Amino acid sequence: MKIIWLGHSAFRLEIADQILLVDPWLEGNPMLGEDQYEAATQGATHILLTHAHFDHAGGVVELAKKLNVPLVGQFDLLSYWAEKEGIEVVAFNKGGTVKLGEIAVTMVNAVHSSSMMGETGPQCTGSECGFMLAAQDHVLYISGDTDVTADMGIFNDLHAPDIGILAAGGHFTMDMERATYAAKKFFNFKTVIPCHYRTFPILEQSAQVMKDGLPGVDVIEPEVMQPITIS
């Protein structure tokens, strides 16, 4: 398994027989150079989307068309795009599980918001979510944009993820202290990768709080386009 950060909350996941792009905000992402777009997206089989905010879904419809791959995510938004844009989608909802090749993807709850700008202002676009990905004897939890929730205890009971990709930048999501609390209180991670940080000055710039607060856990501060290999 290779986990490749594309900056902010965007990831390229090379897992089993699939290459998944998660929240692939490319254009406008200050952490990813335009000359890196092709390498970041080459060979992708699916695009997973946690919600519709611009820093997650900006350009995603155009990217799905360019790559000719399905969008995977929440029913309301993706059903709308399938009808309006004519793209292929895997539209499901929280508690549901779909198979993407050898990967089982379960949609789980998150606490945030989901909207995009319309002609008259912000428009609601279904709801925000996270994902559990099970494959290759690992379970990877992608929190999406969220605060700490008691639901996380249920997630661990049902899925027992050993890898966590946690939004931890603060202001819009959990900060490092709250994400560390969530990891310690509800999960038994072996590896934690923070995201949704360092992108803008308003967000946290370091994961040292998380490293100090999770002894015995491999807290990895990702670097853009540098693969993290999980065996």
Topology:
Layout: E1 2-5, E2 11-15, E3 18-22, H1 37-41, E4 46-48, H2 54-57, H3 60-67, E5 71-74, H4 75-85, E6 89-92, E7 97-100, E8 103-109, E9 115-118, E10 121-124, E11 129-135, E12 138-142, H5 151-159, E13 163-167, H6 176-186, E14 191-195, H7 208-213, E15 218-219, E16 228-229
Parallel strand pairs: 3-4, 4-5, 5-6, 12-13, 13-14, 14-15
Antiparallel strand pairs: 1-2, 1-16, 2-3, 7-8, 8-11, 9-10, 11-12
Which structural traits does this protein have?
seven-stranded mixed sheet, Metallo-beta-lactamase, Chain A, 231 residues, 7 helices, single chain, alpha/beta
Description:
The protein is of the alpha/beta class. The protein has a single domain, classed as Ribonuclease Z/Hydroxyacylglutathione hydrolase-like (Metallo-beta-lactamase, Chain A, 4-Layer Sandwich). It has helices at residues 37-41, 54-57, 60-67, 75-85, 151-159, 176-186, 208-213, and strands spanning 2-5, 11-15, 18-22, 46-48, 71-74, 89-92, 97-100, 103-109, 115-118, 121-124, 129-135, 138-142, 163-167, 191-195, 218-219, 228-229. The strands form three sheets. Strands 6-5-4-3-2-1-16 form a seven-stranded mixed β-sheet, covered by helices on one side. Strand 9 and strand 10 (121-124) form a beta hairpin. 44% of the residues are buried. The mean pLDDT is 96.
